[in-house]
Design goal:
By secondary structure, the protein is an alpha/beta fold. It contains 10 helices and 10 strands. It is 31% helix and 18% strand. The two termini are 36 Å apart.
Length: 315
């Protein structure tokens, strides 16, 4: 993913560093309201609910408030300066002892993880970050690099947990591999508490290989789908197994009389139970749920939250 240098000229910069963010009562709020990131925006930084995102098509940056109102846009440096000002104005000071990172899957958005966020907020005091990434643009390695930037920008004593759906788990596994290969100067890995994988294609995805081979959806689903499919054998070397406790929740609709011919064996119609497996998992659960709805299933959410809370380290 192309990142703009702080020395580059601003791209149609729309505001000054001392801009006051649009509030719901402001006449500019309607014009600055966004969807918070869909298929073309990726988060690179987070602070007190604010997010700095880059557009995968144009390369420009924007800063969003917690309610997805756009505060400013332009260069990355400009957005970082504005973010620092927003955090400095926060009262009381932001408390970020523990975060749970929620990662959506291919062709989905961070909005798909809202129900899990709602449940977590009702049962845990951790800060929740729904990581948004342009899943159909760029590579899984690009998404992992953006996630690393976001995590390295958190306070240095913040403890981290992950909940991923589908490809979101592979983004996290790529991040872990990057940290193990390239070094971990911010000590992210020792601060990771746990992870729950929902419908993870941990062994690649037969459906992606077959779709890619047919050449039907390649332009739509992008490089990430190719990496999970036809490029899996070479790509898998970039992934690592979490060195901290993790659980897997896979969908199993084998009792359904209708099966997906593009997937082998018991599956959730997209990822097979066998493909979801990964050595080292502390728990492996199955639920009779379609792949696209795993993160909304009550039992899957219950298993997820129980695992996260049971693996919290003491303050």
């Amino acid at each position: 993913m192309r990142s703009q240098s702080p020395t580059d000229p601003p791209i149609a910069e729309a505001s000054t560093d001392d801009e006051t963010p649009a509030t719901p009562s402001s006449p500019m709020a309607f014009l600055n309201k966004t969807a918070g990131g869909t298929q073309v925006w990726t988060d690179h930084a987070w602070g007190d609910g604010h997010r700095i995102q880059q557009n995968a098509l144009t390369g420009h940056w924007r800063l969003l408030a917690r309610d997805n109102t756009r505060i400013t846009w332009g260069t990355r440096q400009h957005c970082e300066t504005s973010l620092a000002q927003q955090i400095a104005k926060a009262s009381p000071a932001p408390n970020c002892e523990r975060v749970v990172i929620l990662l959506h899957g291919l062709m989905r958005t961070h909005h798909s993880m809202m129900q899990i966020e709602k449940d977590l907020r009702a049962t845990d005091d951790a800060e929740i970050i729904r990581f948004s990434y342009a899943s159909t643009r760029c590579s899984i390695g690009d998404h992992a690099a953006a996630l690393r930037e976001l995590l390295e920008g958190l306070p240095e004593d913040t403890r981290i947990s992950f909940v991923g759906h589908s490809m979101g788990n592979i983004v996290t596994r790529h991040l872990i591999g990057d940290l193990q290969r390239d070094g971990d100067p911010k000590n992210l890995l020792p601060r990771c508490e746990s992870m729950v994988m929902l419908g993870p294609p941990n062994q690649g995805a037969a459906i992606a290989r077959r779709i890619n081979a047919a050449g039907i959806f390649d332009v739509i689903t992008g490089k990430g789908c190719r990496e999970l499919g036809g490029e899996w054998q070479a790509f898998a070397d970039r992934l690592a197994t979490p060195p901290f406790p993790f659980a897997i929740v896979a969908g199993d609709l084998s009792s359904n009389p209708i099966q997906n011919p593009l997937v082998d064996g018991a599956s959730d119609f997209v990822v097979s139970v066998e493909e979801a497996q990964l050595d080292g998992a502390e728990q492996f659960y199955t639920v009779p749920v379609l792949h696209s709805f795993l993160m909304n299933n009550e039992k899957a959410r219950e298993l997820t939250i129980d695992f996260l809370i049971s693996h919290r380290t003491q303050s």
